[in-house]
Design a protein that fits this description.
single chain, 9 strands, alpha/beta, Rossmann fold, six-stranded parallel β-sheet
């Protein structure tokens, strides 16, 4: 199992806190330092044993770090890791958990010493935010996508793979642009649809919502500011996904307008088949 003497979690929220707890529970880290804007909250997590040290600035936290993981909003990740790289050891692995990758990878390309940056995206989490929702088992048996480039040092790829594997995850390499195209369909579009579905529901009818509505709109409970950044950062792939969804929706509209039972059944069966392949019967 790998071991890091000093780990820095930039942004101790739900995902950052879960990583810290998993590192602690599995004995993979000596000292875990956490950064954030709210020192009082950080002190709370320190007293709870989630982290050992807390800072409101990245630079002193990153001093002599062996591993730095940026868990901040996607538009902050590149600048946060650049700041950390100025103070961390030359051999330090720097990675992140951002749900968009192309912009982050492009901004950091060639700027991290020895190419020891690897973009990462754990496909885990929930609509909840805040370290109080952290779980040490969050990454177990989940998929983590890493997005190395031609300039990424092989050692960094090995270290990143070892990190996420040691936390119980399955790791897969994928180009950053392909990552963003895929996640636009499988993550970003679903959030947009969930939000739209919730927003179009009359407040007069909220006493009548049941499991179907709650299931379909659950992820709309995510942080609006965070999701605004994600959708803007991955705007073009999301737009393509919206266009494809609009075509399917128009098929539904036509089938209902023309009262075509065979087409309605085909559309329902197609949806069921795809979902069954993804999550099982």
């Amino acid at each position: 199992m790998p071991f890091w003497n000093r780990v820095v979690i930039i942004g101790v929220g739900m995902l950052g806190g879960s990583i810290a707890l998993a590192l602690r529970q599995r004995g993979l880290a000596g000292c875990i330092a956490g950064t954030g804007r709210n020192l009082e909250k950080l002190e709370q997590w320190r007293r709870a044993g989630m982290i050992d040290e807390c800072y409101t600035s990245i630079e002193p936290a990153a001093l002599d770090a062996d591993l730095v993981i940026a868990c901040t909003p996607v538009q902050c990740i590149a600048s946060d890791l650049l700041a950390a790289s100025q103070w961390a050891k030359p051999s330090t692995l720097l990675t992140d958990v951002g749900s968009t990758k192309q912009a982050i990878v492009s901004e950091l390309e060639g700027k991290i010493r020895k190419g020891l940056f690897v973009g990462s995206h754990p496909l885990a989490g929930s609509e909840k935010s805040g370290a109080e929702h952290s779980k040490e088992s969050l990454l177990e048996k989940r998929l983590v996508l890493i997005t190395p480039t031609n300039s990424t040092h092989p050692e960094a790829i090995q270290q990143a793979t070892a990190l996420w594997s040691a936390l119980g995850a399955n790791v897969r390499e994928i180009p950053a642009q392909k990552h963003d195209d895929i996640l636009a369909q499988t993550s970003h579009l679903p959030h947009l649809i969930a939000s739209a579905l919730a927003a179009q529901t009359s407040t007069e009818h909220l006493d009548f919502v049941a499991a179907g509505w709650r299931d379909c709109t659950r992820i709309a409970g995510g942080d609006p500011e965070l999701w605004c950044q994600i959708l803007r950062e991955n705007r073009l792939p999301v737009l393509r996904a919206v266009e494809n969804f609009a075509k399917v929706l128009s098929e539904w509209q036509s089938a209902l307008e023309l009262d075509q039972p065979d087409q309605i059944l085909n559309l329902l069966s197609s949806g069921k088949s795809i979902r069954d392949q993804a999550v099982g019967n």
